[in-house]
């Protein structure tokens, strides 16, 4: 890693319920001013700062450029870093003067350098515009986006610029463990992840002056077989009712804990509703995003299948590919990035 430079604005971020230091990933050569303004809005709510990051990927193109221009590879890299730095500073020039700004240029594989900077700089949120997988792909997320949501230990906001047309509602999707999982390692990780999801969602909603909707998709997994194998339909009905009641209590408890962590002014300023919807999460969550007009979805990356906390869950990835809004991916407690480690 070479070629790092910074420009620091006035003052230091003050502690608060918002984001004290946001890492905003800027695509070289693109117009990132709207994305930077969004990051500045989030940071300003907490008296925080924005770190604007651009990456320069060294490789065969850089070698060709060095040969064509007669410069050595190192000189070509320095020239490219310098040009990128000047462009990045021009991009940040119009940001709100009340928000401290730092500009950073790094060379290397983009997702690797983004994750390394997120950890080294102790940033509490990474913001990046959604890439494009190309016209043949349904998902708006490119390879760098996917690497970040899978491997970055900090919350990652993949921003879709047209999501604002859907409204400013923030939706948090939490996954409450089955009662049988209580007290297990998986159960503790799930509880901790739900807390982090709600914490991030509250901060996003408060910073944007938005309403927060908390959604949990529940189901009664053995109902179909129970009806098939048992003549006691009343007992099966009681089972379904008990599962729903447990899910409702869990949802209420999680939301109450999140609200309790806020100060009284924040609690009063945050419109919050809960939605308990029956069905699989990969269907319920996209449906609720559409029904609630959510512009931002906050969701965890814990999967009940495989290795919790190490890889993004299949359900989460399916949901991210199915929604037409910005998404914030949140990692569970104890997550260690394979890149930053």
Explain this structure:
The protein has helices at 33-44, 60-69, 73-92, 110-120, 143-151, 185-208, 223-229, 233-260, 264-269, 281-292, 314-322; strands at residues 21-25, 49-56, 100-107, 125-129, 156-159, 169-174, 212-218, 272-278, 294-300, 326-330. With 341 residues, it is of the alpha/beta class. It has a 10-stranded mixed sheet with strand order 3-2-1-4-5-10-9-6-7-8, sandwiched between helices. The model is unreliable at 1-16, 133-137, 178-187 and 303-311 (pLDDT under 50).
Largest sheet: 10 strands, mixed
Shape: elongated
Order of helices and strands: EHEHHEHEHEEHEHHHEHEHE
The residue fraction in helices comes out at: 40-55%
Beta-strand proportion: 15-25%
Any idea what the radius of gyration is? 22 Å
Give the averaged pLDDT, no decimals.
81
Kindly state the number of beta strands. 10
| Major β-sheet strand ordering | 3-2-1-4-5-10-9-6-7-8
SSE-based structural type: alpha/beta
Number of helices: 11
Distance between the termini: 16 Å
Q: List low-pLDDT spans.
A: 1-16, 133-137, 178-187, 303-311
Task: Tell me briefly what this model is.
With about 350 residues, this protein is of the alpha/beta class. It has helices at about 35-45, 60-70, 75-90, 110-120, 145-150, 185-210, 225-230, 235-260, 265-270, 280-290, 315-320, and strands at about 20-25, 50-55, 100-105, 125-130, 155-160, 170-175, 210-220, 270-280, 295-300, 325-330.
Secondary structure: elements and pairs:
Elements: E1 21-25, H1 33-44, E2 49-56, H2 60-69, H3 73-92, E3 100-107, H4 110-120, E4 125-129, H5 143-151, E5 156-159, E6 169-174, H6 185-208, E7 212-218, H7 223-229, H8 233-260, H9 264-269, E8 272-278, H10 281-292, E9 294-300, H11 314-322, E10 326-330
Parallel strand pairs: 1-2, 1-4, 2-3, 4-5, 6-7, 6-9, 7-8, 9-10
Antiparallel strand pairs: 5-10
């Amino acid at each position: 890693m070479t070629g790092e430079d910074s420009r620091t604005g006035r003052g230091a971020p003050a502690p608060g319920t918002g984001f004290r230091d946001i890492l905003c990933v800027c695509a070289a050569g693109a117009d990132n001013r709207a994305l930077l303004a969004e990051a500045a809005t989030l940071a300003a709510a907490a008296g925080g700062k924005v770190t604007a990051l651009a990456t320069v990927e060294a490789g065969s193109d850089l070698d060709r450029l060095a040969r064509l221009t007669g410069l050595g590879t190192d000189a070509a890299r320095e020239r490219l870093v310098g040009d990128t730095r000047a462009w990045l500073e021009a991009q940040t020039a119009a940001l709100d003067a009340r928000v401290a700004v730092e500009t950073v240029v790094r060379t290397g594989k983009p997702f690797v350098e983004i994750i390394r900077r997120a950890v080294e700089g102790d940033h509490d949120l990474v913001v990046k515009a959604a890439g494009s997988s190309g016209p043949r792909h349904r998902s708006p997320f490119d390879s760098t986006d996917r690497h970040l949501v899978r491997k970055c230990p900090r919350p990652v906001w993949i921003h879709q610029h047209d999501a604002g047309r859907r409204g400013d509602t923030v939706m948090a999707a939490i996954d409450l463990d089955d009662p049988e999982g209580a007290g297990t390692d998986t159960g503790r990780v799930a509880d901790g992840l739900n807390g982090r999801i709600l914490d991030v969602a509250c901060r996003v909603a408060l910073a944007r002056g938005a309403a927060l909707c908390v959604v949990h998709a529940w189901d009664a997994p053995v109902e179909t077989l129970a009806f098939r194998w048992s003549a006691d339909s009343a007992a099966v009905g009681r089972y379904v009712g008990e599962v729903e009641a447990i899910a409702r209590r869990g949802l209420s408890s999680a939301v109450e804990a999140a609200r309790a962590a806020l100060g009284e002014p924040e609690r009063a300023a945050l419109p919050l509703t809960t939605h308990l919807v029956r069905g699989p999460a990969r269907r319920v969550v996209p449906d609720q995003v559409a029904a609630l007009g959510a512009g931002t979805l906050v969701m965890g990356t814990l999967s009940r299948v495989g290795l919790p906390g190490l890889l993004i869950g299949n359900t989460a990835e399916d949901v991210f590919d199915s929604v037409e809004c910005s998404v914030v991916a949140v990692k569970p407690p104890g997550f260690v990035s394979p890149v930053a480690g």
